[in-house]
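Researcher: Structure for this, please.
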Amino acid sequence: MAAAELPRKLGLVDAASIVVGTVIGSAIFLVPSSVARSLPSAGSILLVWIGTGLLSFFGALAYAELGAMMPATGGQYVYLREAYGPMCAFLCGWSYFLVTQAGGVATLAVGFSIYLNYFFALSPWLAKLVAMVLIGFVTIVNYRGVRLGAGVQNLFTSLKLAGIAILVLSAFFTRGHSGPAPAAASEFTWSQFGVAMIACLWAYEGWNCISFVAGEVKRPQRNLPLALGLGMAALIAVYLTANVAYLKILSIPEIAATDRVAATVAQRTMGSAGAALVSLTILLSIAGSINGSIMTSSRIYFAQARDGLFFAAVGRIHPRFETPYISVAAYGAWCAILAVSGSYDRLFSYVVFMAAIWYAMSVMAVLILRRKFPDMPRPYKMWGYPVTPLLFTAVSIWFVANTIIERPQPSLIGCLLVATGIPVYYLWRRAASKIKVHA
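Model: Predicted structure, C-alpha coordinate format:
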Protein backbone atom coordinates (compact mmCIF):
# COMPACT_ATOMS: atom_id res chain seq x y z
CA MET A 1 0.00 0.00 0.00
CA ALA A 2 1.38 3.44 -0.93
CA ALA A 3 2.46 5.81 1.81
CA ALA A 4 0.22 8.81 2.53
CA GLU A 5 3.17 11.20 2.86
CA LEU A 6 6.78 11.27 1.75
CA PRO A 7 9.07 9.92 4.53
CA ARG A 8 11.81 12.04 6.14
CA LYS A 9 15.10 10.49 4.95
CA LEU A 10 17.43 13.49 4.41
CA GLY A 11 19.92 14.58 7.07
CA LEU A 12 21.87 17.83 7.54
CA VAL A 13 24.71 16.81 5.21
CA ASP A 14 22.19 15.85 2.52
CA ALA A 15 20.33 19.16 2.93
CA ALA A 16 23.51 21.27 2.81
CA SER A 17 24.71 19.28 -0.21
CA ILE A 18 21.42 20.05 -1.97
CA VAL A 19 21.90 23.79 -1.33
CA VAL A 20 25.51 23.92 -2.53
CA GLY A 21 25.27 21.22 -5.20
CA THR A 22 22.12 22.56 -6.82
CA VAL A 23 23.39 26.14 -6.96
CA ILE A 24 26.87 25.43 -8.35
CA GLY A 25 26.21 24.23 -11.86
CA SER A 26 27.53 25.74 -15.06
CA ALA A 27 27.01 29.43 -14.30
CA ILE A 28 30.18 30.20 -12.33
CA PHE A 29 32.19 28.71 -15.22
CA LEU A 30 30.24 30.36 -18.03
CA VAL A 31 28.57 33.64 -17.00
CA PRO A 32 31.68 35.60 -15.82
CA SER A 33 32.06 36.52 -19.49
CA SER A 34 28.57 38.07 -19.45
CA VAL A 35 29.45 40.02 -16.29
CA ALA A 36 32.73 41.26 -17.80
CA ARG A 37 30.90 42.50 -20.90
CA SER A 38 28.62 44.63 -18.68
CA LEU A 39 31.07 45.99 -16.08
CA PRO A 40 34.32 47.90 -16.71
CA SER A 41 36.52 47.04 -13.71
CA ALA A 42 37.57 44.24 -11.39
CA GLY A 43 36.14 46.16 -8.44
CA SER A 44 32.67 46.44 -9.95
CA ILE A 45 32.76 42.78 -11.00
CA LEU A 46 33.57 41.62 -7.46
CA LEU A 47 31.00 44.06 -6.07
CA VAL A 48 28.18 42.57 -8.12
CA TRP A 49 29.10 39.05 -6.96
CA ILE A 50 29.21 40.19 -3.32
CA GLY A 51 25.97 42.16 -3.65
CA THR A 52 23.99 39.35 -5.25
CA GLY A 53 25.49 36.89 -2.76
CA LEU A 54 24.34 38.96 0.22
CA LEU A 55 20.94 39.44 -1.39
CA SER A 56 20.60 35.69 -1.82
CA PHE A 57 21.81 35.16 1.76
CA PHE A 58 19.06 37.45 3.10
CA GLY A 59 16.55 35.49 1.05
CA ALA A 60 17.87 32.24 2.49
CA LEU A 61 17.40 33.59 6.02
CA ALA A 62 13.72 34.23 5.22
CA TYR A 63 13.31 30.71 3.85
CA ALA A 64 14.99 29.37 6.97
CA GLU A 65 12.28 30.94 9.13
CA LEU A 66 9.48 29.82 6.85
CA GLY A 67 10.87 26.31 6.43
CA ALA A 68 11.35 25.76 10.17
CA MET A 69 7.82 27.08 10.80
CA MET A 70 6.15 25.07 7.99
CA PRO A 71 8.40 22.10 7.11
CA ALA A 72 6.09 20.72 4.42
CA THR A 73 6.77 19.25 1.00
CA GLY A 74 6.49 21.98 -1.64
CA GLY A 75 8.30 24.67 0.35
CA GLN A 76 7.96 27.97 -1.48
CA TYR A 77 4.60 26.90 -2.93
CA VAL A 78 3.31 26.36 0.61
CA TYR A 79 4.63 29.73 1.84
CA LEU A 80 2.90 31.61 -0.98
CA ARG A 81 -0.32 29.68 -0.47
CA GLU A 82 -0.47 30.54 3.23
CA ALA A 83 0.50 34.19 2.71
CA TYR A 84 -1.35 35.16 -0.47
CA GLY A 85 -3.84 32.38 -1.20
CA PRO A 86 -3.97 29.36 -3.52
CA MET A 87 -4.08 31.31 -6.81
CA CYS A 88 -0.74 33.01 -6.20
CA ALA A 89 0.81 29.70 -5.16
CA PHE A 90 -0.58 28.02 -8.28
CA LEU A 91 0.83 30.71 -10.57
CA CYS A 92 4.24 30.25 -8.97
CA GLY A 93 4.09 26.50 -9.55
CA TRP A 94 2.77 27.06 -13.07
CA SER A 95 5.63 29.40 -14.01
CA TYR A 96 8.16 27.10 -12.35
CA PHE A 97 6.95 24.14 -14.36
CA LEU A 98 6.77 26.04 -17.66
CA VAL A 99 9.98 28.08 -17.46
CA THR A 100 11.57 29.04 -14.16
CA GLN A 101 12.78 25.74 -12.67
CA ALA A 102 12.41 23.61 -15.78
CA GLY A 103 14.17 26.29 -17.84
CA GLY A 104 16.99 26.25 -15.31
CA VAL A 105 17.48 22.52 -15.81
CA ALA A 106 17.34 22.94 -19.58
CA THR A 107 19.92 25.74 -19.39
CA LEU A 108 22.24 23.55 -17.34
CA ALA A 109 21.88 20.74 -19.86
CA VAL A 110 22.83 23.17 -22.65
CA GLY A 111 25.83 24.26 -20.57
CA PHE A 112 26.81 20.59 -20.23
CA SER A 113 26.92 20.30 -24.01
CA ILE A 114 29.08 23.44 -24.26
CA TYR A 115 31.75 21.96 -21.98
CA LEU A 116 31.52 18.50 -23.55
CA ASN A 117 32.76 20.15 -26.75
CA TYR A 118 36.17 20.34 -25.04
CA PHE A 119 36.45 16.56 -25.45
CA PHE A 120 34.21 15.88 -28.45
CA ALA A 121 33.10 18.03 -31.37
CA LEU A 122 29.33 17.84 -31.14
CA SER A 123 27.01 18.76 -33.95
CA PRO A 124 23.98 20.86 -32.89
CA TRP A 125 21.57 17.92 -32.99
CA LEU A 126 23.98 15.66 -31.08
CA ALA A 127 24.46 18.33 -28.41
CA LYS A 128 20.69 18.43 -27.89
CA LEU A 129 20.58 14.64 -27.70
CA VAL A 130 23.28 14.66 -25.02
CA ALA A 131 21.29 17.20 -22.98
CA MET A 132 18.16 15.04 -23.19
CA VAL A 133 20.03 11.85 -22.19
CA LEU A 134 21.57 13.59 -19.15
CA ILE A 135 18.16 14.81 -17.97
CA GLY A 136 16.74 11.31 -18.52
CA PHE A 137 19.49 9.70 -16.43
CA VAL A 138 19.01 11.90 -13.35
CA THR A 139 15.24 11.59 -13.68
CA ILE A 140 15.56 7.79 -13.39
CA VAL A 141 17.87 8.17 -10.37
CA ASN A 142 15.34 10.31 -8.50
CA TYR A 143 12.41 8.18 -9.61
CA ARG A 144 14.00 5.24 -7.76
CA GLY A 145 14.47 6.89 -4.36
CA VAL A 146 15.31 10.09 -2.50
CA ARG A 147 18.23 8.38 -0.71
CA LEU A 148 19.70 7.34 -4.06
CA GLY A 149 19.24 10.87 -5.36
CA ALA A 150 20.85 12.32 -2.22
CA GLY A 151 23.81 9.94 -2.52
CA VAL A 152 24.40 11.00 -6.11
CA GLN A 153 24.06 14.64 -5.02
CA ASN A 154 26.66 14.26 -2.27
CA LEU A 155 29.10 12.67 -4.71
CA PHE A 156 28.69 15.34 -7.36
CA THR A 157 28.95 18.14 -4.79
CA SER A 158 32.26 16.76 -3.50
CA LEU A 159 33.64 16.47 -7.04
CA LYS A 160 32.64 19.97 -8.08
CA LEU A 161 34.16 21.56 -4.95
CA ALA A 162 37.36 19.60 -5.57
CA GLY A 163 37.45 20.81 -9.17
CA ILE A 164 36.99 24.45 -8.18
CA ALA A 165 39.66 24.09 -5.49
CA ILE A 166 42.15 22.75 -8.06
CA LEU A 167 41.33 25.61 -10.42
CA VAL A 168 41.66 28.33 -7.77
CA LEU A 169 44.88 26.96 -6.29
CA SER A 170 46.46 26.64 -9.73
CA ALA A 171 45.66 30.32 -10.41
CA PHE A 172 47.03 31.52 -7.08
CA PHE A 173 50.31 29.65 -7.68
CA THR A 174 50.71 30.93 -11.23
CA ARG A 175 51.97 34.33 -12.29
CA GLY A 176 49.08 36.51 -13.44
CA HIS A 177 48.72 38.45 -16.68
CA SER A 178 51.24 41.29 -16.99
CA GLY A 179 51.18 44.72 -18.54
CA PRO A 180 48.89 47.70 -17.96
CA ALA A 181 45.20 47.05 -17.60
CA PRO A 182 43.34 47.59 -20.88
CA ALA A 183 41.06 50.59 -21.07
CA ALA A 184 37.52 49.93 -19.95
CA ALA A 185 35.11 49.28 -22.80
CA SER A 186 32.40 51.29 -21.06
CA GLU A 187 31.82 53.48 -18.04
CA PHE A 188 30.08 52.14 -14.95
CA THR A 189 26.31 52.62 -14.95
CA TRP A 190 23.71 51.24 -12.55
CA SER A 191 21.61 49.96 -15.43
CA GLN A 192 24.53 47.85 -16.66
CA PHE A 193 25.13 46.75 -13.06
CA GLY A 194 21.54 45.49 -13.10
CA VAL A 195 22.19 43.59 -16.32
CA ALA A 196 25.26 41.98 -14.70
CA MET A 197 23.05 41.02 -11.75
CA ILE A 198 20.98 38.85 -14.09
CA ALA A 199 24.00 36.67 -14.73
CA CYS A 200 25.12 36.62 -11.08
CA LEU A 201 21.67 35.84 -9.73
CA TRP A 202 21.51 32.97 -12.19
CA ALA A 203 24.77 31.70 -10.68
CA TYR A 204 23.14 31.81 -7.21
CA GLU A 205 19.85 30.40 -8.51
CA GLY A 206 18.69 27.26 -6.70
CA TRP A 207 19.26 28.04 -2.99
CA ASN A 208 15.50 27.90 -2.49
CA CYS A 209 15.27 24.31 -3.75
CA ILE A 210 15.92 22.80 -0.33
CA SER A 211 12.54 24.19 0.77
CA PHE A 212 10.78 21.99 -1.78
CA VAL A 213 11.92 18.83 0.04
CA ALA A 214 11.37 20.25 3.56
CA GLY A 215 8.84 17.49 4.14
CA GLU A 216 11.59 14.88 3.67
CA VAL A 217 14.29 16.47 5.90
CA LYS A 218 14.90 15.00 9.36
CA ARG A 219 14.62 17.45 12.27
CA PRO A 220 13.64 20.26 9.85
CA GLN A 221 13.38 22.91 12.56
CA ARG A 222 17.14 22.54 13.10
CA ASN A 223 18.50 21.21 9.82
CA LEU A 224 16.77 23.55 7.35
CA PRO A 225 18.13 26.82 8.84
CA LEU A 226 21.58 25.28 9.29
CA ALA A 227 21.71 23.92 5.74
CA LEU A 228 20.65 27.27 4.27
CA GLY A 229 23.02 29.35 6.40
CA LEU A 230 26.08 27.16 5.97
CA GLY A 231 25.34 26.52 2.31
CA MET A 232 24.98 30.20 1.37
CA ALA A 233 28.11 31.21 3.29
CA ALA A 234 30.06 28.52 1.42
CA LEU A 235 28.66 29.62 -1.94
CA ILE A 236 29.65 33.27 -1.49
CA ALA A 237 33.17 32.23 -0.50
CA VAL A 238 33.51 29.85 -3.47
CA TYR A 239 32.23 32.36 -6.02
CA LEU A 240 34.45 35.19 -4.78
CA THR A 241 37.61 33.08 -4.77
CA ALA A 242 36.80 31.73 -8.24
CA ASN A 243 36.37 35.25 -9.66
CA VAL A 244 39.56 36.49 -7.99
CA ALA A 245 41.35 33.55 -9.64
CA TYR A 246 39.87 34.40 -13.06
CA LEU A 247 40.88 38.07 -12.72
CA LYS A 248 44.40 37.12 -11.67
CA ILE A 249 45.05 35.09 -14.82
CA LEU A 250 42.91 36.88 -17.44
CA SER A 251 42.27 40.51 -18.20
CA ILE A 252 38.67 41.74 -18.26
CA PRO A 253 38.55 41.90 -22.11
CA GLU A 254 39.87 38.32 -22.22
CA ILE A 255 37.18 37.15 -19.79
CA ALA A 256 34.53 38.95 -21.83
CA ALA A 257 35.74 37.30 -25.04
CA THR A 258 35.62 33.65 -23.92
CA ASP A 259 32.60 31.49 -23.14
CA ARG A 260 34.60 28.84 -21.24
CA VAL A 261 36.38 31.07 -18.72
CA ALA A 262 37.32 28.31 -16.27
CA ALA A 263 38.76 26.07 -18.99
CA THR A 264 40.80 28.98 -20.39
CA VAL A 265 42.24 29.72 -16.95
CA ALA A 266 43.06 26.04 -16.39
CA GLN A 267 44.75 25.88 -19.80
CA ARG A 268 47.07 28.74 -18.82
CA THR A 269 47.83 27.49 -15.32
CA MET A 270 48.01 23.70 -15.79
CA GLY A 271 48.25 23.08 -19.51
CA SER A 272 46.01 20.83 -21.57
CA ALA A 273 45.86 18.07 -18.92
CA GLY A 274 44.70 20.52 -16.26
CA ALA A 275 42.11 22.03 -18.54
CA ALA A 276 40.78 18.56 -19.35
CA LEU A 277 40.58 17.68 -15.64
CA VAL A 278 38.73 20.87 -14.78
CA SER A 279 36.39 20.48 -17.75
CA LEU A 280 35.54 16.94 -16.66
CA THR A 281 34.86 18.13 -13.11
CA ILE A 282 32.62 20.87 -14.47
CA LEU A 283 30.61 18.30 -16.41
CA LEU A 284 30.07 16.38 -13.17
CA SER A 285 29.19 19.65 -11.46
CA ILE A 286 26.48 20.44 -13.99
CA ALA A 287 25.09 16.92 -13.74
CA GLY A 288 24.91 17.30 -9.96
CA SER A 289 23.03 20.58 -10.22
CA ILE A 290 20.50 19.02 -12.59
CA ASN A 291 20.12 16.10 -10.18
CA GLY A 292 19.42 18.44 -7.26
CA SER A 293 16.88 20.44 -9.24
CA ILE A 294 14.93 17.42 -10.46
CA MET A 295 14.99 15.90 -6.97
CA THR A 296 13.56 19.02 -5.34
CA SER A 297 11.45 20.87 -7.92
CA SER A 298 9.31 17.84 -8.70
CA ARG A 299 7.93 18.18 -5.14
CA ILE A 300 6.21 21.48 -6.05
CA TYR A 301 3.87 19.79 -8.49
CA PHE A 302 3.34 16.91 -6.06
CA ALA A 303 2.13 19.47 -3.46
CA GLN A 304 -0.06 21.19 -6.07
CA ALA A 305 -1.67 17.90 -7.01
CA ARG A 306 -2.39 17.19 -3.34
CA ASP A 307 -4.21 20.57 -3.25
CA GLY A 308 -6.26 19.64 -6.33
CA LEU A 309 -4.43 22.15 -8.53
CA PHE A 310 -2.61 19.72 -10.82
CA PHE A 311 -3.29 16.32 -12.33
CA ALA A 312 -4.30 13.99 -9.49
CA ALA A 313 -1.87 11.28 -10.60
CA VAL A 314 1.06 13.67 -9.97
CA GLY A 315 0.26 13.45 -6.25
CA ARG A 316 0.85 9.70 -6.08
CA ILE A 317 3.71 8.11 -4.09
CA HIS A 318 5.49 5.02 -5.40
CA PRO A 319 4.71 2.07 -3.10
CA ARG A 320 8.28 0.71 -3.29
CA PHE A 321 10.56 3.71 -3.91
CA GLU A 322 8.53 6.17 -1.75
CA THR A 323 8.97 8.98 -4.26
CA PRO A 324 6.48 11.22 -6.12
CA TYR A 325 7.36 9.16 -9.17
CA ILE A 326 4.83 10.56 -11.65
CA SER A 327 5.77 14.12 -10.74
CA VAL A 328 9.48 13.30 -11.16
CA ALA A 329 8.90 11.65 -14.55
CA ALA A 330 6.65 14.43 -15.89
CA TYR A 331 9.02 17.17 -14.75
CA GLY A 332 12.03 15.42 -16.27
CA ALA A 333 10.22 14.97 -19.59
CA TRP A 334 9.30 18.66 -19.77
CA CYS A 335 12.86 19.72 -18.90
CA ALA A 336 14.14 17.57 -21.77
CA ILE A 337 11.71 19.26 -24.18
CA LEU A 338 12.86 22.71 -23.08
CA ALA A 339 16.51 21.69 -23.46
CA VAL A 340 16.11 21.51 -27.24
CA SER A 341 13.99 24.65 -27.55
CA GLY A 342 16.31 27.65 -27.01
CA SER A 343 19.77 29.08 -26.42
CA TYR A 344 21.58 29.38 -23.08
CA ASP A 345 21.33 33.17 -22.85
CA ARG A 346 17.66 33.31 -23.82
CA LEU A 347 16.60 30.64 -21.32
CA PHE A 348 18.39 32.05 -18.30
CA SER A 349 16.98 35.53 -19.04
CA TYR A 350 13.48 34.12 -18.60
CA VAL A 351 14.46 32.09 -15.55
CA VAL A 352 16.04 34.81 -13.41
CA PHE A 353 13.40 37.45 -14.19
CA MET A 354 10.54 35.22 -13.03
CA ALA A 355 12.46 33.79 -10.07
CA ALA A 356 13.13 37.29 -8.68
CA ILE A 357 9.39 38.01 -8.49
CA TRP A 358 8.59 34.83 -6.55
CA TYR A 359 11.60 35.26 -4.28
CA ALA A 360 10.48 38.77 -3.35
CA MET A 361 6.94 37.63 -2.60
CA SER A 362 8.18 34.65 -0.56
CA VAL A 363 10.49 36.83 1.54
CA MET A 364 7.66 39.31 2.12
CA ALA A 365 5.63 36.34 3.33
CA VAL A 366 7.76 36.44 6.50
CA LEU A 367 6.19 39.81 7.42
CA ILE A 368 2.70 38.75 6.34
CA LEU A 369 2.71 35.45 8.20
CA ARG A 370 4.08 37.02 11.39
CA ARG A 371 0.94 39.17 11.41
CA LYS A 372 -1.38 36.46 10.13
CA PHE A 373 -0.17 33.68 12.46
CA PRO A 374 1.57 35.47 15.37
CA ASP A 375 1.29 32.47 17.71
CA MET A 376 2.65 29.84 15.31
CA PRO A 377 5.90 28.29 16.67
CA ARG A 378 9.01 29.70 14.97
CA PRO A 379 12.10 27.64 15.91
CA TYR A 380 14.21 30.09 13.90
CA LYS A 381 13.52 33.80 13.37
CA MET A 382 15.06 35.74 10.48
CA TRP A 383 18.11 37.80 11.46
CA GLY A 384 17.71 41.57 11.00
CA TYR A 385 13.91 41.51 10.82
CA PRO A 386 12.22 43.62 9.46
CA VAL A 387 15.14 45.41 7.76
CA THR A 388 16.55 42.38 5.93
CA PRO A 389 13.29 41.19 4.31
CA LEU A 390 12.39 44.76 3.32
CA LEU A 391 15.88 45.34 1.87
CA PHE A 392 15.69 42.07 -0.09
CA THR A 393 12.28 43.03 -1.47
CA ALA A 394 13.36 46.58 -2.40
CA VAL A 395 16.44 45.37 -4.29
CA SER A 396 14.37 42.67 -6.01
CA ILE A 397 11.81 45.24 -7.16
CA TRP A 398 14.59 47.46 -8.54
CA PHE A 399 16.13 44.45 -10.28
CA VAL A 400 12.81 43.45 -11.86
CA ALA A 401 12.12 47.04 -13.02
CA ASN A 402 15.63 47.37 -14.47
CA THR A 403 15.25 44.04 -16.28
CA ILE A 404 11.96 45.19 -17.82
CA ILE A 405 13.68 48.36 -19.09
CA GLU A 406 16.90 46.74 -20.29
CA ARG A 407 15.43 43.47 -21.62
CA PRO A 408 11.78 44.11 -22.39
CA GLN A 409 11.19 41.13 -24.69
CA PRO A 410 12.13 38.28 -22.28
CA SER A 411 10.42 40.18 -19.47
CA LEU A 412 7.19 40.39 -21.48
CA ILE A 413 7.43 36.71 -22.37
CA GLY A 414 7.87 35.83 -18.70
CA CYS A 415 4.82 37.88 -17.67
CA LEU A 416 2.69 36.36 -20.42
CA LEU A 417 3.68 32.86 -19.37
CA VAL A 418 2.51 33.56 -15.82
CA ALA A 419 -0.73 35.11 -17.11
CA THR A 420 -1.59 31.94 -19.04
CA GLY A 421 -1.93 30.20 -15.69
CA ILE A 422 -4.89 32.33 -14.56
CA PRO A 423 -7.56 30.60 -16.70
CA VAL A 424 -5.90 27.25 -16.03
CA TYR A 425 -6.20 27.86 -12.28
CA TYR A 426 -9.95 28.48 -12.51
CA LEU A 427 -10.44 25.42 -14.72
CA TRP A 428 -8.63 23.25 -12.19
CA ARG A 429 -10.56 24.72 -9.27
CA ARG A 430 -13.80 24.04 -11.11
CA ALA A 431 -12.78 20.46 -11.88
CA ALA A 432 -11.70 19.89 -8.27
CA SER A 433 -15.05 21.22 -7.00
CA LYS A 434 -16.95 18.81 -9.27
CA ILE A 435 -14.88 15.88 -8.00
CA LYS A 436 -15.66 16.83 -4.39
CA VAL A 437 -19.38 17.11 -5.16
CA HIS A 438 -19.46 13.66 -6.77
CA ALA A 439 -17.47 12.20 -3.88
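Researcher: Any notable elements?
Model: The chain has a mean pLDDT of 88. The domain at 12-433 is CATH 1.20.1740.10 (Amino acid/polyamine transporter I).
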